[in-house]
Amino acid sequence: MANTKTYVIEHLDSECGPWSTLEYLAIAKESTESGAQFCLSSAPKDIDFPASLRVGQGLEIEHRSVEEIYRDRKSRVCLLDPAAKEELSPKDADDFDVFVFG
User: Fold this and answer.
1) pTM of this prediction exceeds 0.90
2) Rounded distance, CA 17 to CA 26, Å?
3) What digits encode the pLDDT tens for the residues 48-71?
4) From 9, 18, 61, 85, which residue has the greatest number of CB atoms within 10 Å?
5) Which helix (H) or strand (E) holds 101?
């Protein structure tokens, strides 16, 4: 059986505007529907996320960094970099459980 995939966005901004809220809700919905998890990491502790995100299904808001959350399985974390020399491919799903957008 395949491992559950987790998609992470590092939210470093001090606020969460309407556009980001819509994007996060859409990602949470699509992740839940596909059996994956969605997490916002590195969220500032003093940020006031909109209520729709705080109670939204399929979204975990985490104040810890990716490094802290996944320190025990770093080798299974893929940092998605638009400047990477190698493109992500379907076979990477076998090597990674966590995909970080940041």
Assistant:
1) no
2) 14
3) 898 888 776 789 999 999 999 999
4) 9
5) strand 98-101
The strand pair at 98-101 and 6-10 is best described as: parallel
**Is the distance from CB of 39 to CB of 60 less than 8 angstroms?**
yes
Q: Whose CA is closest to 57, among 19, 31, 83, 77?
A: 31
Tokens for 10?
């590092």
Residue corresponding to tokens 């059996």:
35
Phi/psi of residue 30, each to 5°? -65, -35
Which residues sit opposite 42 in a β-bridge?
none
- Taking the CA atoms of residue 90, residue 95, residue 101 and residue 102 in that order, the dihedral angle to the nearest 10 degrees is -140
DSSP letters of 13-73? SS---HHHHHHHHHHHHHHHHTT-EEEEES--TT----HHHHS-TTEEE--S-HHHHTGGG
DSSP structure string for 23-35 = HHHHHHHHHHHTT
How far is the CA of 102 from the CAs of 13, 24, 33, 64, in angstroms? 11, 13, 23, 14
